[in-house]
Amino acid sequence: MTDTADPLAPHFKRVLLKLSGESLGYGDNKLGISLDKTKAIAEQLARVAGRGVQLAVVIGGGNLLRGAQFTAGAETIKPATADYMGMLATVMNGLALQDTLEAMGVETRLQSAVRMETVAEPYIRRRALRHLEKGRIVILAGGTGNPFVTTDTAAALRGTELLADVLLKATKVDGVYNVDPKKNDYAEKFDRLTFDQVIQKQLGVMDIGAFEMCRLAKLPILVFDYKQDAAIEKAIAGQPIGTIVTG
User: Fold this and answer.
1) pTM for this structure?
2) What's the CATH code of the domain at 234?
3) Residue 23 marked as a ligand binder
4) pLDDT tens across 51-103, in order?
5) What's the total number of domains in the chain?
6) Is 152 annotated as a binding residue?
7) 29 carries a ligand binding annotation
């Protein structure tokens, strides 16, 4: 899947993209869905799909609600309930992204691990694979359907189930560093790492459960800054962006 005439020709055929809810939000701790940011993300996804990439997207809900905000020092809402509320927020983001993509003429399917057939298909692995093979963008909401695990874990699980070539983790930093680059001006960025190096150096690529799942499945992880121009397209094209973690 290469085209020398197109610098953004895809390097990967099937991709699992992990998008945080913040990528669709306003930022600055303001809750809600920014239509402008959602459209900007959708435009990239539409171009990627147009190049023939089979694309599945796991989406977070932090721009609308985080379960932890209800459990810090509170006893009214139980942690499991708070996590389920967060899962519902991911469905709201999924609906927004789905309609934005379809307004651009891109065929999509929204699947939720939390069953709600009125607005989304239930997540069924074989059905998701069929949608991908037909060129539809599959938006995966509801996390894993279980409390006490993150959407990073959902991304690792779905990427493994759907036989993705790579898991793209879109974040607010441009890769993996030895220390927090926001706190240390001398932070060193890594271009490439192995799974063993991440463990040895105790680097926070993603939560340990998700990371271990990718390591066992030999599913490469690419961590990159989604705010850069055409960042998602460049990542899928195999351009030197972010940090790649492989076996």
Assistant:
1) 0.93
2) 3.40.1160.10
3) no
4) 999 999 999 999 998 766 666 655 788 889 999 999 999 999 999 999 999 99
5) 1
6) no
7) no
